[in-house]
Write a structure and sequence with these properties.
13 helices, 14% strand, 8-stranded mixed beta sheet, 295 residues, globular, 8 strands, alpha/beta
Length: 295
């Protein structure tokens, strides 16, 4: 069984699951993970394999695996990492049920090393979220995990309510997810959320698109769930209006704007997802897959 024969097969299996990989850096990373998983399964390191390969011209699959090569298990190990970027904790009041003090344990269990917090209209849980991420990292190290396996990144964000005019007493607004890319983004998100409560509170803390444009630096923007403007316009069969909104947000955030795509088995999502993909294809705005996690 030769590594130069099995690795392309493993990468092919990944491509079957997630589609063609256009980014060479991502494919290289998957290739390295595939090699690592392969050698772990053999129980030897790369140098030992090279010696065996030189002596015998390869390794017998039946001798090493007794005929049981778990392809699915290896695929699971080398699939690209998934990060939840749309998560509602108990601080999404009367809505979220995800307990911050438990969520990072669940992440480590699933092999995830980063997580975002995007509560509805507030950042109340952000500090505790970051503290719990650090505690989870330290505990994993104490349990004997490597630095690589123990790492945990807390991504601070918020799902904001965006109205046409945040000072007008109207209940029509869109959902929009913002994630902090750096310290400037964190300050801008604090500014936007503070304005939403001080100047824009009417049933919900609200900002508007003018404010969003003024404080967009350092933030990553996701188009939101079914309550986002892009999705709402598609549900109204207004494709051009949805595309116009996407281009407006792209102008504000540049390469840091992503069209959010979700599939929770809801008929509305199945209806609009092909159109979101089409907007992405026509505008060059990248897609990002999320779960609207509440528990």
């Amino acid at each position: 069984l030769r590594v130069d024969a099995i690795i392309p097969s493993l990468i092919g299996g990944v491509k079957e699951k997630i589609g063609e990989i256009k980014d060479n850096a991502i494919e290289d990373r998957i290739r390295r993970k595939a090699e690592k998983a392969f050698f772990e399964l053999l129980g030897i390191n790369k140098r030992e394999y090279a010696n065996l390969d030189k002596e015998s011209g390869g390794i017998s699959g039946s001798d090493i695996f007794n005929g049981a090569f778990d392809f699915a298990e290896i695929l699971e190990k080398i699939m690209p990492d998934f990060v939840h970027l749309h998560v509602h904790t108990e601080y999404s009041l009367l809505d979220g049920a995800t307990r911050i003090d438990n969520v990072f344990k669940a992440c480590h269990k699933k092999g995830m090393h980063a997580l975002a917090i995007t509560d509805h209209g507030n950042m109340f849980g952000s500090l505790y979220f970051a503290e719990c991420a650090k505690k989870a990292y330290m505990k994993a190290l104490e349990e004997g995990k490597s630095e690589e396996d123990a790492k945990m990144q807390a991504i601070i964000g918020c799902e904001l309510y965006v109205a046409e005019n945040h000072k007008e007493p109207e209940r029509e607004y869109d959902h929009l997810v913002l994630l902090c890319k750096n310290k400037k983004g964190y300050k801008n998100l604090i500014k936007l959320d503070s304005i939403a409560y001080v100047d824009g509170f009417y049933y919900k803390p609200r900002i508007d698109y003018k404010l969003l444009k003024e404080h967009s630096e350092g933030l990553v923007c996701l188009s939101g769930c079914l309550a986002g403007r892009v999705s709402k316009r598609l549900l109204m069969n207004d494709y051009e209006g949805a595309k116009e909104t996407a281009l407006m947000l792209k102008e504000m955030f540049g390469e840091d704007f992503y069209l959010e795509i979700q599939d929770h088995g809801m008929p509305e999502q199945k209806q609009i997802n092909p159109f979101i993909k089409q907007i992405s294809k026509e505008t060059g705005i990248p897609l990002i897959a999320t779960n609207d996690a509440h528990y």
